[in-house]
Amino acid sequence: MSSALDLASQPTPASEVADPDALLRAAIAGACQRIAPLWPLKNFVAVNPFLGFTGQSFHATCATLHRVARIDMLMPRQYYRDAVRSGTIADEDIEAALHAAPPDWSVPKSAAAFRLVMQRDAVEKTKHPAVVATIAEVLDSLAAGDTLLSRTAFMISEISKWCAAYFDDGQSVWRLPARSQPPYKAWRAAMRDDLNPEVRGIKGFRALVRRMPEDPVRAIAQVTDLIGVPARAMEDYLHQALLDIGGWSAYARYIGWNAELAGGHDDTLVELLAIRVVWGYALFVQRTDPAFQAAWRQAMADAATQPLDEQLGEDPDLQTDLLLHEAFEISQQRRLLARLGASRSRPEPVERPALQAAFCIDVRSEIYRRALEAVRPDAETVGFAGFFGFPIEYVPIGHVTGRAHCPVLLRPAFTVCESVTRASEKENAEILALRLLRRRVGKVWKAFKLSAVTSFVYVEATGLFFAGKILSDSLALTRTVKDPNTDGLDRQSISRLGPQIMPRIVGGRRTGFDPEQRVAMAEAVLRGMSMTTRFGRLVMLVGHGSTTVNNPHASGLDCGACGGNTGEANARVAACILNDSAVRDGLRGRGINIPDDTWFVGCLHDTTTDDIRIFDADTVPACLTADLAAAREAFTRASSLARMERCASLGIRQDARAERRVLARSRDWAQVRPEWGLAGNAAFIAAPRARTRGVDLHGRAFLHDYDCRRDEDFAVLELIMTAPMVVASWINLQYYGSVVNNKVFGSGNKVLHNVTGTIGVLEGNSGDLKVGLPLQSVHDGVRFVHEPLRLNVFIEAPLDAINGVIARHEMVRQLADNRWIHLFAIDPACGAYYRYQKDQQWMKLPGQ
Fold first, then answer.
1. Is 413 in the same domain as 535?
2. The total number of structural domains that make up the chain
3. Quick check: is 490 in a domain?
4. CB atoms within 10 A of CB 290
5. C-alpha angle 59/61/65, rounded to 5°?
6. What are the tens digits of pLDDT across the range 106-161?
7. Which residue in 69, 595, 652, 674 has its CB near the most CB atoms, within 10 A?
8. Sign of the CA dihedral running 319, 323, 325, 326
9. What is the pTM of this model?
C-alpha cells in the first residue's frame, strides 16, 4: 500500500494506465444500475428507491444495504413492539410469519417464544463488517480521524455545490462556463482554479486532479488500483461511493434513464462516479502514517475474503426485525381481506347509469368516489390511470416545447398544443404577442430585482409597496405566485384555453391526431376502462391535481400518471376525441356503440380542496343541460363529504368553518401539510367496482376497474400489470422508504429546504441533494400517518392469465417473486382468494 501512497505524489502519465478490463466495466455498470433515478422538481414523481435491487429479494436487499452501507430498510424494533403491545400484531400474525420464514433461518417455534426474542434490543456488534470499508470507517476505527472525517463531509458538500452549478436548470443568474463539456472534464477544468480544498487542508488537491486520466473510466481504474480495492468487492465499493452523493447520483441516473427511454445512452452517472472516486482518493493520500496504512491494508484484505452472499442466515437481529415486519404486514392483510370479503355478494348493476364518472386510480380518488356514490346512488364511478390512455406532450400556449403528460415508463406518442378556443388566427396572434410582451417585462423586472447592485435599490425604494401583498399572502387570502402556465394572460383568455387536437405542423413538429389515430386511441381507452357498453348520458372524465403554494414538491401531489402534471389536459383531450362523431362512427365498426345522447366531459379534481372543476361546459348539448346541473349539484355535495373526511386526518376542527380552513391551507405559504398526498397507500385492486363499492377503504387503495369477462385475450390485464400496477408499486415503495429511513430515502425537514438549480432541494445550505418525500409528508409531528407496508395487489382474473403476464415480463416477475409486492388473485367465478407464492405457484387462502 505504501507504493500507492508514494505514487500519489508523482505524475502518472495517462498513457501508462491500461484500459480497464471487462470486470471493472461490469462493476461500474452494476453500481450505477443500483441507483434509482430522481426526477426534477418540475415533474417530481414517485420512484421506487430500491429500483436497482428488484432482481433480488426484499429480504436480501435489506441485508445488502445494511452490509454495504449501514442503511436500514426496516422500522426500529420498538415500532413493531408497540404494534404487538397494542394488538395491531396478533399472535396469529406472528405464527404466520414464523411459518413462512425461509428454511435456513433459526426461528422460534411459537409466537410466545418469539415474543421473548423480540424484547431484546439489537446488538450492534453482530452487524457484519462492510464488504469494503470506506476511508471514513477506517479512520473511525482508529479513533483518530476527526479532522479527516469532517473533510469527508466537506467532500460531499463540495461535490454537491459543483453539481448544483453544473446541472442548474435556470435558477442561477450566472452560469458555469464549462457546462457544455461532459461532467468529469468540466469538473477537472473547474478544479484548476478551486482553492477551497487546499484551504481546508487537503494538500496537493489541484495537482492530484491534474494528474488523473482524462477518461473517467480510466480514472476510476487507476484510483481503485492504487488503493487496492479487491475485484470481488469492486461493485460494492463503487456503489457505496455513489451513495455518498446519492441525491446527485440519482439525478444523473434520471438523465441516463431519459436517454435510454429515447433509445440512446448517457454516461453522466459514470462521470459523476469518477469525480467522487478521485475526490475520495485525494482524502486517502492525506494519511501516510503507519497506523492508517496498516488499517487500510487489513480492511482491503477483509474485503477480499468476504463471501458474496448476503449472509442473512447469520444475522439473528436482522432475522428478528424481518419477522416482525412480515407479521406487521400480515396483520394488515388480514384486516383488508376481511373488509373486502364483506363485498363478495354485491351484484353488478345492469341498468344504464344516470351518471358515470371516471377517476384516476390515485388513492385520494377512493374517498371522492365513495362520497359521490353516497350522494348519487344511481351514479357509477370508474377507476383508470389519470392520463386516460393518452401519452401526450402538452405544450402550453406560447411555448415551443411542453411536458410529458404520461407515466415516466412511457414516452409521449403525441404532441398537443394549447390554444385559445374559438379564436381566429389574428386573435390568437394578438393574445400571444401581448403575453410575450408581459413576460419580457417581467423578466426585465426580475433581473432588476436580482442584480448584484440594483437589488439593494429595489428593496429600499419599493419595499413598503409590497406590505399589502405580504399581508394578504400571510393570511392565505391570495396566492404567493402566479401559475407559470398562464403567466402573462388575462382572465378572459385563461378561461378559453384548451387543447388543440386537429393535426397541424407547429414549430416544425406534427401535433394533434389524425382520424385513424383518434379512433385507435378512443378504442384503447374505452377497452382499458372496461367501458364498452352501458354508457351513461353524461360521462365525466375526472383528472386530478393539487393546489399549494411555497411547495417545492408540489408536482409530487399532482398526477403521477401524467408525469407529475395535472390531469386536466389528458381529460379534455380524451373527452374531445370521444365526442367526435367521426370517432364514434369508427368505434361502431369495432364493436363499441356509444349512444347519440352520451356526452363526455373533462373535469379536474383538486385533491387539496376537493373541488371539481368542469371544463367546456358550454359545449354540452342543450338536451343534457338538466343532467349537467344535477352532476354539478352531486359534485358539490360529494366535495363537502370528502372534505369533511379529510379534515379528520389533517387535524382540522369539523365545524361550520372547516371547509373554509381546507381552502385556506391551499394558499398558506407556511403550510407544511396542505394535504396528505398518497400517504397511507397500501393496496392496488383491479376488479369490477362491484367488488369494492360500499366498502370504506379509508383512502388507502388504488382502484382500477377491470372486468376480465370483457378482456378476451387478456391484453388489458397485461397492460394493467405492466403499467399501473408497476407505477403504484413505485409510489408505495417511495412512501415506504421515506418512512423507514427518511434520512437516506426521504428529503428530511421541509422547513429547512432550499431549492437548488430548480432541480431538487438541500436540507439546509449544504450537503447532498435530497431524494424522496419530506418528513412532514408522512409524519404529523406526533406519529407516522403512513404505515410502511409493501403494496397488496388484488387482481380479479383467472390464475392462468395472471401467470401468463408474469412469465412474459421480467419486471413483473421480479416484483412478485422477490416479494416487492404481495400478489393476490380473486377467482372471477366464485370469489375465492389466492395468495401468490413464487414461480407462478398459488395458495388458496383458508376459508375460501
1. yes
2. 4
3. no
4. 8
5. 130
6. 889 899 999 999 988 766 544 445 567 777 677 767 755 556 657 788 999 999 99
7. 674
8. positive
9. 0.92
Q: How confident is the model at residue 666 (pLDDT cuts 50, 70, 90)?
A: confident
CB under 8 Å to 747, separation ≥6 — which residues?
Answer: 553, 738, 753, 761, 763, 770, 771, 772, 773, 774, 775
Distance, CA of 838 to CA of 842 (rounded, Å) = 8
Q: What is the rounded distance in angstroms from the CA atom of residue 38 to the CA atom of residue 53?
A: 16
Domain-embedded: residue 571: yes
Which of 673, 707, 732 is the last residue in one of the domains?
A: 673
pLDDT at 469: 67
Q: Are residues 562 and 613 in the same domain?
A: yes
Contacts of 745 (CB under 8 A, 6+ apart): 49, 734, 737, 738, 771, 772
Backbone φ and ψ for 66, nearest 5 degrees, come out as: -70, -40
User: Do 18 and 151 share a domain, yes or no?
Assistant: yes
Last residue of a domain, one of 652, 673, 694: 673
Distance CA 453, CA 457 (A): 7
CA 375 to chain centre: 33
* DSSP element (H, E) containing 331: helix 316-341
Q: Name the residue range of residue 650's domain.
A: 355-422+496-673
Q: What is the dihedral sign for C-alpha 304, 310, 314, 320?
A: positive
DSSP string, 440-464: HHHHHHHHHHHSTTHHHHHHHHHGG
Is 712 a member of any domain?
Answer: yes
Strand order in the sheet with 403-405: 403-405, 392-395, 414-420, 497-500
Q: Is the pLDDT of residue 721 over 90?
A: yes
Q: Calculate mean pLDDT across residues 18-35.
A: 86
Q: CA separation (Å) from 349 to 374, 381, 574, 638?
A: 16, 12, 25, 21
Instruction: Report residue 705: phi and psi, to 5°.
Output: -70, 130
Looking at the fold, whether 229 and 147 belong to one and the same domain comes out as: yes
Q: How far apart are CA 538 and CA 523, in angstroms?
A: 18
Q: What is the mean pLDDT of residues 429-453?
A: 72
The three-state secondary structure class of 392 is: strand
Copy the grid coordinates of residue 210: 491534474
* Percent of the chain topping pLDDT 70: 88
Q: Are residues 537 and 602 in the same domain?
A: yes
pLDDT tens per residue across span 524-563: 999 999 999 999 999 999 999 999 988 999 999 999 999 9
φ, ψ at 397 (rounded to 5°) = -60, 135
Between helix 111-118 and helix 316-341 the angle, nearest 10°, is 130
- Cα separation, 446 vs 227, in Å, equals 50
Lowest mean pLDDT among 6-10, 286-290, 505-509: 6-10
Evaluate whether residue 515 is within a structural domain: yes
User: Cell triple for residue 625?
Assistant: 343541460
Query: What average pLDDT does the chain have?
Result: 88
Q: Are 638 and 650 in contact (CB under 8 A)?
A: no
Same domain assignment for residues 190 and 100: no
Q: pLDDT digit string (tens) for 576-610?
A: 999 999 999 999 999 999 999 999 999 999 999 99
In this prediction, residue 452 has a pLDDT band, given cuts at 50, 70 and 90, of low
CB atoms within 10 A of CB 782: 7
510 HSE (CA, 13 A, CB side): 7
Residue 305 has pLDDT above 70, yes or no: yes
Please tell me the number of Cα atoms within 13 Å of 716 on its side-chain side: 27
Instruction: Give the residue-averaged pLDDT of 735-745.
Output: 97
3-state SS, residue 394: strand
Nearest to 507 by CA among 404, 415, 390, 435: 415
In a shared domain, residues 111 and 201: no
Do 140 and 259 lie in a common domain? yes
